Each structure stands twice: as C-alpha cells, then as structure tokens.
Amino acid sequence: MSKTNHINRIPRAKGIDMAAFYSPKECGRKAKHIVFSADNERVVEEFITILGMKEQFAEHDVPMPNKMVMFGPPGTGKTLTAFHLAHRLQLPLVLVRLDAIIHSHLGETGSNVRKLFEYARANPCVLFLDEFDAVGRTRESNDEVKEMARVVNTLLQCLDEFEGDSILVAATNLETQLDQAIWRRFDTKMTYSMPDESSRRLYISKLMGQFEQESQLEDYTCERLTGCSYADVEQIVLKAKRKAIIASSPLHEQFINDAYVEYMPRVLAT
Ligand SMILES: Nc1ncnc2c1ncn2[C@@H]1O[C@H](COP(=O)(O)OP(=O)(O)O)[C@@H](O)[C@H]1O
Ligand SMILES: [Mg+2]
C-alpha cells in the first residue's frame, strides 16, 4: 500500500499552525475499526441524527447540540471518536493538542484559543481539542496561575459564543481536574472505559480480520488480553501478526503470548 499523506492541506488558515487538518475521507480510514460501548454508540448516533434535522429543530426553537466532551483513560477511543464524527458528518477535522499550545507560550494561549474558534466559526469543521484538561492544570508560579485563569475565561467565552455549522469536541483523561464552569458548557458528555469482554472480542476479530490463524485463537486472545485497553490490544495483535509473517506461519497462541510479554501492557489488577 502506498504511504498516504496524513495531513491534508484543506481549508487551512494562517495563524493556526498548531492544528493538524484531516479530510473526512482520511478520518473515515482512521476510525474504520472503532468499537463503541452501547451507551456511547447511542449518544453518538443521536448526536448525528439531530445534526441532520436542522429545520425541525429550528421549527421547534430547540437549539442543536454542538459541544461534546469525552472523558476516560488513555487508549479507549476518544481521539478515534473525533475522527469517526468528522467522517460521519463529512466535515474536516481540525485537531489541536491543548497541552502543546499552552506549554509552549502560556502568554499566547488566549489568543491562540480565539484564533481556533474564529477559524471554526468561518469554516465548518469538527474542532477537536485533545488533552483538554491542560487548561485546568494548576501552575507553579503566581503569574502562571493568573495567566491560566485568563485562559480559562477566554475559553468559557469562546464556548458560550460557539455557533454555526462547526462542532466542538474535547477529550480529557482527568475529569476531576476540569473546571466545573467549563464542564457545564458541554451539551453532550461521553465516558470511555477499558473494553469489556464482548467489546474486546469484537475488536480482536476486527484486528485479526482474514489473517490466517489457528482455530479458537480469538477466544484465547480475548482471555489473554483481559484488562488491556483497546490501544494495547491493537499493539499486541499487530506485534503477533508481525511474528507470524516473519515465521511464515499462521497466527497462533505462542505469538500472542510472546507479543504480550514483550509489549508489557499496564494491566490493572482486577
Ligand atoms: N474504542 C476503540 N475502538 C477501536 N480502536 C480503538 C478504540 N480505542 C482505542 N483504539 C485504538 O487505539 C489507538 C489509540 O486510541 P485513541 O482514540 O487515541 O485513545 P484515547 O484518545 O482514548 O487515548 C487508536 O488509534 C486505535 O487504533
Ligand atoms: Mg487521545
């Protein structure tokens, strides 16, 4: 397969070079194997349904949702959901890591945040603020605390004024550190967690696909990878496939087991 250009130079604006841009098609490719919990699937489908019913909502004078926040541990599909949404809504994705724009120059964060929201107002997109909790993180020095408070205020204002055809999506690993005033402004909230057995099984079967394998391998893998995040499951299955390819062999238990041991996932004791 040819190497694809991951960042498309689509409606790209001056002054927001901290953002990465992805076309809807690219987003679809990335989110191809996404697995949702039943609850999150419902929330996402409802969100998309509503966005397709603009006239009806205007008629009833009920505002459309346009701000979604996702909370949960790493590797459970928050970023992937942003790609999925952009694909389903056929909007470009504008991805920004909030920690990156804050940590480089705290003093410029407020104006950077404004620029992003201005961009989203003028250009329909899914504006995805990843590592969203970075805004709430307390700082060492007094000056930084004050500056951060200003950033939070700017963000609150931008959230309140956010309207038009763009969607704002934010993701955070740390629910508790997020400023309550910010949290309240999101109309749609989703919680992410480690895959349960059936989600893990579904994801493993998507990852293994048509790869030649010994029978019952999915059952073994599902059991062996208990406690792993989706991201861990993916890495371990890919590692095992590599081993099978270099050994010119079908995928079997030993490869899964070796990949697991080498990868050393951080599995929480249950
Ligand atoms: N729910 C999921 N369904 C399918 N794949 C997932 C899921 N969660 C994570 N992954 C895999 O792990 C990688 C990292 O996931 P990501 O969405 O970045 O996690 P998060 O943003 O929650 O830390 C993804 O690129 C994908 O390959
Ligand atoms: Mg992420």
UniProtKB/TrEMBL annotation:
Alphabetized Pfam families for the sequence: AAA
Keyword terms of this UniProt record: ATP-binding, Nucleotide-binding
GO MF annotations in UniProt: ATP binding; ATP hydrolysis activity
Keyword Electron transport (UniProt): no
Domain AAA+ ATPase: 64-196
Keyword Nucleotide-binding attributed: yes
SMART domains, per database record: AAA
Protein family membership: Belongs to the AAA ATPase family.
Listed name of the protein: ATPase
Source species taxonomy: Bacteria, Bacillati, Bacillota, Bacilli, Bacillales
